[in-house]
Amino acid sequence: MPMMSSQRSATPRLLLLGGTTEARQLADALAAAGVDAVYSYAGRTQAPRAQPLPTRVGGFGGVAGLCAWLRAQRITQVVDATHPFAARMSANAVEACAALGIPLVALERPAWVAQAGDDWREVPDVAAAVAALPAAPTCVFLAIGRQTLDAFAQAPQHHYLLRLVDAPLQPLPLPQATLVLDRGPFTVEGDRQLMLAHGSTHVVAKNAGGSGARAKLDAARSLGLPVVLVQRPQLPPRTRVASVAEAMAWLAAHRAALGV
Ligand SMILES: NC(=O)c1ccc[n+]([C@@H]2O[C@H](COP(=O)([O-])OP(=O)(O)OC[C@H]3O[C@@H](n4cnc5c(N)ncnc54)[C@H](OP(=O)(O)O)[C@@H]3O)[C@@H](O)[C@H]2O)c1
Questions:
Q1: pLDDT tens-digit profile of 102-147?
Q2: DSSP β-ladder status, 120-123 and 177-181
Q3: pTM of the full predicted structure?
Q4: Whole-angstrom Cα distance, residue 147 to residue 11?
Q5: Which of 14, 88, 163, 231 should be mutated for ligand 1, with most atoms under 8 A from CB?
Q6: What one-character DSSP code corresponds to residue 4?
Q7: Given 66, 157, 173, 241, which residue has the most CB atoms within 10 angstroms?
Q8: CB–CB of 21/210 below 8 Å?
Q9: Mutation test of ligand 1: which of 22, 80, 83, 229 has the most ligand atoms closer than 8 Å to its C-beta?
Q10: How far is the CA of 20 from the centre of ligand 1 (A)?
């Protein structure tokens, strides 16, 4: 049965920090369970997917803004299901929830692990990924999203294949680039064909984990292509779960603690 908002501050009300496939899956589960919850998007994409929950879009204004919003909305639990590379948002959530005494859990998908046949070079950050590419010109499938493209301007000798959700509003910082507009999840065969069509010789990706973006790594393995894989940023300690079912169990335990 749907839970209704009330004036009692202990009435459970959840903030779901989203922007990932897992957040969407959790939103489906929350909506099906009738949980009073708000889904939050950063607002990076022009047409974010519709969610089965009330949705807000845009930054909160740092830790102070997030604290104010959590208080105003009488939020009693927060699930951080942002992308593993959304380190600022995750750190802000840890700090704001600690300050307000609001239980927080991170829905954190396990990192990808190399398997037989993978040719991965793991690097700590995007700058190291640029340095890990060969000096001679190559064809790089640069599958890291829009926000960190600038770093690759340091290696303009390569041809870059970019796959983005939206067309960039600014000129690309890369002199030789082919842009493909598409939104995951992707398939291994689709990514194989994409790399073959563009003559990709290297792949650069972030170790996002999960299933929706894994296809490019499986495609690279099947084509024998080397992958430069950026490792995840460090995050403050926080309670973590690895699946939607675990997140729902965590939520139920905290609702029980509220006497619901
Ligand atoms: N980074 C990636 O590779 C990647 C990949 C796929 C999807 N995403 C999604 O894209 C969004 C932005 O990622 P990012 O790497 O730019 O994050 P970020 O660097 O950690 O966040 C920068 C700022 O964006 C705002 N923000 C981020 N996520 C938000 C959310 N879900 N709701 C409201 N505000 C949010 C916050 O602004 P204020 O400080 O003003 O609150 C945050 O301080 C995230 O929601 C993430 O799940 C990121």
A1: 999 999 999 999 999 999 999 999 999 999 999 999 999 999 988 8
A2: unpaired
A3: 0.90
A4: 38
A5: 88
A6: P
A7: 66
A8: yes
A9: 83
A10: 10
Helices then strands, counting H and E runs in the chain, come out as 7, 12
pLDDT in tens, 7-39: 344 689 999 999 998 999 999 999 999 999 999
Can you read off the two tokens belonging to residue 200?
């990709």
Reported in sequence order, the residue ranges of the chain that DSSP labels E, i.e. its strands, are 14-17, 37-41, 55-57, 77-80, 104-107, 120-123, 139-143, 159-164, 177-181, 202-206, 227-230, 240-241
Ligand 1 interacting residues, C-beta cut-off 6 A:
17-20, 40-42, 44, 59-62, 65-66, 82-83, 85-89, 92, 145, 147, 206
Q: Judging by beta carbons within 10 Å of its beta carbon (0-12, 13-18, 19+), is residue 49 exposed, middle or buried?
A: middle
Ligand 1 centre to CA of 117 (Å) is: 33
Locate the ligand 1 atom nearest the alpha carbon of residue 206 and give its number: 3
Output the CA–CA distances (angstroms, integers) from residue 113 to 19, 55, 119, 192, in the order listed. Answer: 23, 33, 11, 20
